[in-house]
Amino acid sequence: MSGKRKATADSGGNVKKLKSSGTSFQQRTISSFFTPKTDTSAPRAAKAMPSRDARDLLKGKFTENDENRQNDSPGPCSPNEAPRAIEQDAAVESGNEGGRMEVDSPSPKLSKFKRLRRLTSDSEEELPGRTRPAAKGGTIPRRSTEAFRYRKKNHACGENTEGENSQYVEVSGASAAERNRVRERFLAKFTIDERSEDPNPEADEGDMDSAEDGEVEHGTGKGLPRKVGNQSRDTTPVQARKGSGKTKSTYTPLEQQFLEIKANHPDCLLVVEVGYKFRFFGEDAKIAAKELNIVAYRDHSMYTASFPTHRLHVHVKKLVQLGYKVGIVRQMETAALKAVGDNKNAPFVRKLTNVYSKGTFVDDIGGEDIAFEVRSSYLLCINEEEGKGAMDTAKISIVAVQLHTGDVIFDEFDDNYMRNELETRMMHIQPTEIILPGNPLSDMTETLIRQLCESFGSTGDTVRIERLKGAFLDHATARKVLAEFYEQPILDNKPTGNDNGTALAAELYSQALSLPRRVIICLAALLKYLVQFGLEDILRLTKFFTAFASVAHMVLNANTLNSLEIFRNQTDFEEKGSLLWILDHTKTKFGQRLLKKWIGRPLVQLPDLQKRIDAVEEIIQGDAQGNVFIQRMRGLICQLPDLEKSVCRIHYGRCSPSELNNTLLAFEKIGSSFISDAWEKFRSPILKDIYKSLPAIKSDVMYFRGMINESAAKSDDKIEFFSDTSKWPEIGEFKENLETVEEELLAHLKEVRGEIKKPNLTYVTVAGIEYLIEVPVNQASKVPSNWIKISNTKAVARFHTPFVIEKIKERDRYREQLVAACDTAYAAFVREVGSRYELFRGVVQSIATMDCLLSLATVAAQPGYCKPEFVPDATVLVKEGRHPMVENVVSSYVTNDVDLTQDRRCLLITGPNMGGKSSYIRQVALIVIMGQIGSYVPAKSAQLGIFDSVHTRMGASDDLAGGQSTFMKELQETSDIMRTATNRSLVILDELGRGTSTHDGTAIAFATLKYFIEDLKSITLFVTHYPVLGQLEKEFPGALRNCHMAFHETEEEDESSHSIIFLYKLTRGLAHRSYGLNVARLANLPNELLATAREKAAELEAEVEQRKTANSVRTRADLLLRFWRETFAAHDFALIKSLVDTRSVDNSI
Is residue 39 a contact partner of residue 95, using CB atoms and an 8 Å limit? Predict the structure, then answer.
C-alpha cells in the first residue's frame, strides 16, 4: 500500500474512514484498543461465556445495565457488551469456541503496542517511508495483536461500515505535534470551555421541556462548539445530525428521569444517585463543576459531573453554604430486589428524597454532625402591607423559626420610613435565609434587607433569599390553611409530644389562630415553604412561640447593638472584642445560643433580675465552699453534645443510630448524676427548678436505652440495633432466613470438598466477593465445566459454583428485605423517642440555663467585678467603673466614677479628640446592660436602676443606597430616639451636629440637649465640641453638669505647637479647645501641612477673639449711652451725642 491516503471523521468525530489504493477501514478512538484478551497462560479444553447471572453478580447491587443508553436505537455497544464481544472473537480465532471462559482477564500492556498514527484531515499527506506492508494475495500478515484488531461487530453494533478486512494502521512512532493534536482532541471532547458561547442559544422546536425547567438542551443540531487551539469540534450527538432538518433530541432513560424531576423542582440543584456515585446533569453539572472543583464533561445528550457516595455530605454542605437549594434524588430499589421484581428491565426508580437550603439544613446525612456551626440559623419570613409611597410608614409582620432548636419568634409592627424597627429585629435574629413575597416589597424595605444581608455576609457567611410566588395569601385563606394544618392531629388522634394528643392539638390550634392577623399570613407562607422540606411539624409546637417585643425584656435597637459592639466589633465584624466575647464562657452549643439571647434582651422586671443575679452569687459561694453538685454540673456540661439540635433531629425523625445513642447516653448521664432531692441544697429558686427537673427523665431514658444494642448503634448498624426485636417479628424471620442460607452454603462446601478431593477447602473472600472457591492454577482444568471463574492470579484461580451464585442472590434478597424491615422499625423507634420531645427539651433548657449562670459566675469571679445593687429609680451610681472590653486589650485602664440620677440626669462632656469621651459613655451603657443581664459589672461598687431601653447616636456614616447624607442619618437616628425614649431610658448622643456648618450644628445640638433635659427627662450623656452648650448649665442647675476629659498641655521646643497628654479622667468644667492639630500630628501628617494649619488656626482664633472684643465694647457703649439718656435732659443728650460718636466712645473706653 503506497501513495496518498485520505481520512474523514464521521458525525461523532470518532471513527475514521481511511481510503487507500486497495482497502478501506475504520479506526476508533484510542480507548477502543484497550480491550482485554483471553488468558493463554494455561491450556484449556474449552472456553465458554459465563452466564448472565454471574456477570450481574460482579456488577454490584447498583449496576445500571441499560439505563444510560437507548434501547431502541442503534449506537455504540454498552460497556458490558463490548469486552464480551471481543473475548468471543478472540476465542473463535484461537479455536476455543466452547467450554469455560475467564470473566476478569488481565488487560494487555500498552507497552506491547506501537503507537497508532492518527489522521485528522482529508488533505493530510501520509508520512513517507511508512507504507503498510502487504503479503501475498493482498492480505496483511497475522500478528500477535490480531485478537485486538478493531472489528465492526465488536464496536459498531449496528452501524454500517465499509470493508470486511478493516484494520488499523500501525506506525513505529508519532511526532510531538501528532501527540499534541491527540491531546487537544481529547480535551475538546471531555472538558468544558467556559469561554465558548452558543452562537444560537434558541432551542429547537422539538426540544423537550427546555424552556420550562431551565435545562439547556444539548444534541439538537445546535450544539455548542468547543475550541481547543485552532481546532473546533461539534459536540452534537450523532442521532441529532443524521438526516436533514431539525430533529428532536434523544435522551437516555436516566436523563429522562432527571428532566422529569427537574421540571417539578427547577430551583434545585439535583444530585442524582447512580450506583456508587452521585451525579449532576445539564446546567447543574456546570454549576457543580465550578463550585466544587470537579470535572464536568459531555455524556450522551447532557453534561454531567459526579463524585463518590461517601463525599455526599461534604459537597452538599458546601453548596448549601454558598446559598444553593440542593435536592438529593435517591434510588428507591436495589439490584437484588429489582432482579426479581416486575420492573427488572426498566430503569431504577428514583425519587427526590431530601431538599436542603441554608435555613433548613438539619439532617445528619453524612454520619457526622455537619450542620452549620453558627449561633443564629433562623429562617425569617417577612411580609409588608402598604408603605409603597416614598415617605410612608409600613406595616410589617415577621415569623422566624430556628429549626435546629425549635424556637419560633413572631411580631408585627408599624415601621417608619427608615425601617428602623425592621433593622432592629433583623440585627437580633441575624437570619441565614429570608423568605419574601414574589412581588418586591417597598424600595426602602428591599434596600435595608439587601444592605443587612451584605453586612451579615461580610464575615463570609452569605444570606440566602427565597421569593415565594402565591404563598402570601389573604387573611381568610391563610387562616383556613393553618386551621387544616393544626386540625390534622385532632382528626388523626395522633400525639404531638404528649399522651393526651387530641387535647394538646386542640390547645395548639387555638393558640396558633389567636396570633395577630398579619402574623397568620406570614405563618401560612412559612408553612408552605417548610412542607417541601418535611419540617412543618415544628410549627405545631406553639408552646415555643414567643413574641419578639415583650414587657419582660429590654430590646436593644440596631444602632445600640452596633455602637456598643454587643455581638461583634466594628473593626472586622468578628465576635472577638464584643460584649458577647467578654461574657461567653459557656461549654455547650445550646448554652451559647441562650446566652446570646440574654445579652440581646436584658431583663426589665426587678424580681426576675434579682433571682438571676442571686443565682450567680450562690454559684460563686458554692464554688468557694466546694459544693459537690455545682462541681459535678461543671464536669457534666463539658461532656455534652449539642443536645438541642439532636432532640430536634429526633423530633424530625432524621437522626442516625449513633447520634440517637449518644443523645440518650447524654440524657442518661444527666438523669443519673443528681439525686432526686439535690434541689433542696440550694436557696435560689432558679437553681432549685434546674436540679428538680433533671432526674425526671431517668425512667424514660433507661427504657429507651434498654432497647438498644450499644455496639451496633455506635457503628450505625440498624440490623443489630435492637437488643430485643419482639416488637418487630419480621426482623427475626428475615434473620432466620439468612442463617438458613448460610447453613446451606456451608453444607454445599462439604460437597465441593468431596467433588474436587480437597478436605481442607474453605471459602475465601477477595475484593468484597464472598464464597469463592480457590483452586491452584495447575488444577483449574479439573474443576467442573459449569463452574464460573471469577478471578485468578499466577498461583490460584477462583470460582463460583451455580449453587453458590443462586444462594448469594437469595441471601442478598433476604438481606435487603431485612434492611427495609430494620429501617421501618428504627423509624418507629425514633418516633417513639420523639414523642418525649417536650420533656427532653425542658431538660435541655435547664442545662442551658445552668451553663449560662456558670458562665456569668466565671465573669463575676474575675478581679475587679462587683455585684450591682438594683434600685427602683433610673439611677447609675458607679465607683471606679471600667470599660469591660477595653480593659482586656490595654495594659492599664483609668477608672472613672458615674453619678447620674433623676435630679442629676445629664452630663455635657467636652474635651480634646482622643481624650476618652466615647469610651466613657460606652462604659456607662455597657455597665447598665451587663447589670440587667444579671452579670456582675467591672467596678468597685455599683448601684443601678432599671432602664426600659438604651439608645445611642454615635459615629458618622452615610447611606448612599438610601439617599441619605451623613448629617441626614444623624438627625434621623436622633428623631427615632426622641420618639421612643422615656424618662427611664439611657440616652447617649455623641457629637450631634458635626455634619453641617458650625452655626447650624450648634443650634441643633443646643435645641436637642434642651429637649432631653426639659421634656423627656431621660438619663443623658451628651458629647460635644461646642463649648457654647455649657450655657445650659445655668438654665438647668443640678440637672445638667459640664464635664471634660482631663488632659495636660505642654509646649514643644519650637514654642509654636503644643503636646497633649491625655489623662482619661472625667473632671468638672468645660474644655474650650479640642486640640485637633495634636491628633493630626499623631497621625503623622507632613510637617509642612501642620505648620500651615497651625498658622491658619492662630489667624482664625485671633480673628474670632477680635470679634468677641469688638462685640463686648459695643455692648458697653450701648449701656453707657442708655445711662446718659436717662440721666441728662434731652437737649443735653443730643449735644453729647453729636460730640461723641461710637468710635470715640469705643476708644475712650
Answer: no
Tell me the three state secondary structure of residue 942.
strand
Alpha-helix residue ranges (DSSP H) falling in 265-350: 283-292, 312-321, 335-339
941: pLDDT confidence band, cut at 50, 70 and 90?
very high
Q: Report how far residue 742's alpha carbon sits from residue 378's, in angstroms, rounded to the nearest whole number.
A: 52
Pairing of strands 1040-1051, 906-910: parallel
Return all residues near 1140 (Cβ < 8 A) that are at least 6 apart.
Answer: 1148
How far is Cα 597 from Cα 745, in angstroms, rounded to an integer? Answer: 63
Q: Are 269 and 329 in contact (CB under 8 A)?
A: no
The dihedral formed by the CA atoms of 113, 117, 120 and 124, expressed in degrees to the nearest 10: -170
Q: State residue 929's pLDDT score.
A: 96
Q: Say yes or no to pLDDT of 1058 above 70.
A: no
As given in the structure block, the three cell numbers for residue 318 are: 458546601
- Is there a contact between 837 and 647 (Cβ–Cβ < 8 Å)? yes
Contact status, residue 60 vs residue 276, Cβ threshold 8 Å = yes
Model pLDDT for residues 791-812, shown as the tens digit of each residue:
989 999 999 999 999 999 999 8
Rounded Cα gap, residues 1067 and 917, in angstroms? 11
| H or E element at residue 1059 | strand 1058-1068
Q: What distance in Å separates the CA atoms of residue 182 and residue 120, rounded to the nearest whole number?
A: 9
Q: Cell numbers for 941, please give them.
A: 461598687
pTM: 0.70
Please report where in the chains the cell 477595653 appears, as a residue: 886
Integer Cα distance of 34 and 164 in angstroms: 22
Identify which of 708, 606, 524 has the alpha carbon closest to the alpha carbon of residue 944: 606
Q: What is the DSSP string of 517-554?
A: HHHHHHHHHHHHHHHTTT-GGGGG-GGGEEESS-TTBP
- Bridge partners for 433 per DSSP: 379, 464
Q: Which cell numbers hold the place of 1114? A: 459695643
The CA dihedral of 90, 95, 100, 101, to the nearest 10 degrees, is -10
- Please report, to the nearest 10 degrees, the dihedral formed by the alpha carbons of residues 6, 10, 14, 18 taken in order: -20
Helix (H, G, I), strand (E, B) or coil at 495: coil
- Most confident residue range from 278-292, 331-345, 359-373: 278-292
Strands (E), 57-169: none
61 closest CA partner among 806, 812, 767, 820: 812
